[in-house]
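User: Hello, can you help with two protein structures?

Assistant: Certainly.
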Amino acid sequence: MADLVLGSTTVISDSSGSPAIQSGVTFPAGHIIQVAYGHTATATSVSTTLIDVGLSVDITPTDPTNKILVTAHLNMQYNNSGMGFKILRDSTVIKTALDYANYTSAGGQINTRSSYAILDDISDSPAWSSGSINYKIQARTYAGTHTFNESTNYSEIIAMEVVA
């Protein structure tokens, strides 16, 4: 088997022919080195008060200088209103989408899926130096009560550690 090179480190085959990474490997900036996934299919009633909707993911970064790319794909149902969201790192809001872009005033039920993403610079967080980080979603409506994950839909959140 030919040697493989990652950055300045050679990745070689061990004696059994299985790939083995030499100790001391460092990945170049921009590489994703771990992925964590969370999802929920539980329908949650949401009103005008911001609440946790049961969608979260935990990730333990390997280096405090790295960044975490968080993506969320959210399902909702509403009628004559809209729903907004926040993405939190532990208890700190890192993304707000409360402009109710997912809004209808035309009448009738709307079922929709919205996606959000943020590249979180965890080095900006004085509270985090090691251990697990929790990312979660909170939601509220513009008016009335609506459903997050209506029917058999599901929502998901993905956290990916990116080398800085």
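That covers the first. Now for the second protein you mentioned:
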Amino acid sequence: MHSFDEYLFTQFEESLVRTGLAATTVVNYMADLRCFAPWLEDQPSPNGRLLGVQMEDIQCYEESVGGEGRAPSTINRRVHAIRKFYEFAMAEGWLAANPARDVRPLPLPELVPPGAHR
């Protein structure tokens, strides 16, 4: 990861802590972002930098993570962390729009209570 990306992540992490999020939530958001950044760098897209991302890049990442066999809840959490990062980037004036804003969460499987039959 590039040093500028590390700077962005550090600023984001500090902002999460300031907002009073639980320490576990902060750790999970940062872990999710640290999965996204190297994936992004490996893409042939010229937008392979954090601040050059388009909605299509995030949708492609969502599909890629799904192809790894990850649960929809895990994929949704990762996309939510990415969305929060870009909300922060907008608030800081680094971006004019959040590229993750319109990326829709995946549907979660219906939970069946124990002992219930379909």
